[in-house]
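Category: protein sequence paired with discrete backbone structure
Discipline: computational structural biology
Format: plain text, a pair of labelled lines
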Amino acid sequence: MARMVVIADDLTGAADCAASATTFGCETVVLLHSLGDQNCLAGWPDCDIVSVDANSRCLSDVRASELITRLVHECDSHNASCPGYILFKKIDSTLRGNVAIETAALLHARRSVHSAGAKLALLMAPALPAQGRTMIGGRLLVHGTPLEETDIWQTEAGAAQSNVPALLSTVNLS
């Protein structure tokens, strides 16, 4: 059982979250997901925070959605005796990966196992001010320049999308 579970799309994100929590005295464990692993969370640790590297950034939309759905159900199952635990979906501060698809999958999976009265909240905060990444009007800026106009996305396969509302409008969040 954990008070918080973090699902990140890569090891850096999972480790960053775990490291930050340890500075506040939390006992944390990072679990690694292998792309062929159907039961990656079998060895569930008893600690304050479990941070899972879903290893989903390079997956197709369909595979990323399926994986996040499965991970959410596994996390809920492992924390059944702790109904108030927090499920935190870590996204990349430059919106790389399957951000919209994974967010939608998480919300749909949580709704499928909770009663209609359950409270679900989504806070999407890709900014990282210490590294010059800020949000203004729903748009991600890097040192004041829109994300898609920066060098950060030059090596990425997909097109950059710095407008968060537009990015989220590509999936069904309801």
About this structure: Strands lie at 4-8, 28-32, 49-53, 86-90, 133-136, 139-142, 145-146. The first strand starts at residue 4 and ends at 8. The chain is about 30% helix and 15% strand. The mean pLDDT is 85.
